[in-house]
Amino acid sequence: MNHPINQSAAHALAIDRLEVHYQGITALRGVSLQIKQGEIFTLIGPNGAGKSSLVNAVTGIVPSTGSIEFGGREFNRLPSYQRARLGVIQVPEGRRVIAPLSVLENLMLGREALGARKGDVQADLDRVFALFPILAERRQQLSGTLSGGQQQMLAIGRALMGHPRVLLLDEPSLGLAPVIIADVFRAIRRLNEEGMTIFLVEQNARLALETAHRAAVLEQGRIVKQGEADVLAHDPEVEEHYFGQAAH
Ligand SMILES: Nc1ncnc2c1ncn2[C@@H]1O[C@H](COP(=O)(O)OP(=O)(O)OP(=O)(O)O)[C@@H](O)[C@H]1O
User: Where is the signal peptide (predicted)?
Assistant: First the structure.
């Protein structure tokens, strides 16, 4: 952690005994976590640990049992679009930009999360373009022709168009060159410094722990460690299992 939490320590998300089952496969087994308002919380763990399942359960893309409170209100029975409308918005693994649409058209899709209260579109675009100037330059370009890093920026920008209060990022560094990863993570820190709560899922444990305030380790659907990111970064088991080449 290299920057302070700049808001109160109220819980933005309180996850309690969350379970996700796919036919015959249990992906999450009684996961309990609390994400504080204004922090960057990171979830690290190996391939297949259930990290994406947790993000998808929080945003309602996959069904789960157990409780998820957002701002003190139980919301695990709400459909995904209502969760987005309340400000819980995901940047999916693999970016998922719509290749045949332009950068601008992809950004406009992010406004769907706003429902009827659309507000000032230009102000929202200006905010995204201030964070990622390359998207302003390329606004008319088809998204499928962007580089991986630019697509990741677009995926984040699209989520920002929906006014997230909690932004969930699933593996934002995946497949990107180090210099581009640094740009993306600088933007993530900046959003947090402006007050946004961030839930970051990463296989790049070193980077994730450097960026976050608090962290948890997920293995085979269970939380096996949880604490201050600084402390976990110096935990010998974390160093051994997650800081080698295999981490990414
Ligand atoms: N739609 C699905 N149907 C069946 N099984 C699934 C589905 N999605 C995930 N799984 C399984 O659930 C478990 C957890 O997967 P999940 O994608 O949540 O893990 P992960 O930690 O995000 O891994 P990765 O880093 O590879 O994305 C794995 O065993 C995976 O094969």
Answer: none
